[in-house]
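Extended Data, panel c. Modelled sequence:
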Amino acid sequence: MKLLRIAAVCLLDASNHLLLVRKRDTRAFMLPGGKIEPGETSLGALRRELQEELQLSLDESALLALGRFRAPAANEPATEIDSQVFLARLTHPVQAGAELAELRWHDPQGPDTADLAPLLRLHVLPSLRHLTPG
């Protein structure tokens, strides 16, 4: 099984809704972020990916560590991801850029949908439900 190292972020709005993204030619919604390139830190990779995907620049001080999780990759067969996940507040609107096809706001307290990436279903949403109870 192949292992990918990624960095991702839970961007929450004022109502504690979570920003999800869907990449072009894929079905699963996931957190913004992406693969950590050789020589990059998790935070460096995340800041690069946020700029590419959402034209969003966040200071590292705005990113709090949520946890490190492993899960099956949503869009790559026989692949697992090792993900460093951060948490941040989003204070202004963003638009899909780069390879993104769609943005969606998800209520972490609401039901999971079949189109959520395994990382979200297995680890991130349960963690957020614990942090932000209904």
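Residues 2-131 form a domain with the Nucleoside Triphosphate Pyrophosphohydrolase fold (CATH 3.90.79.10). This feature is highlighted in the accompanying rendering.
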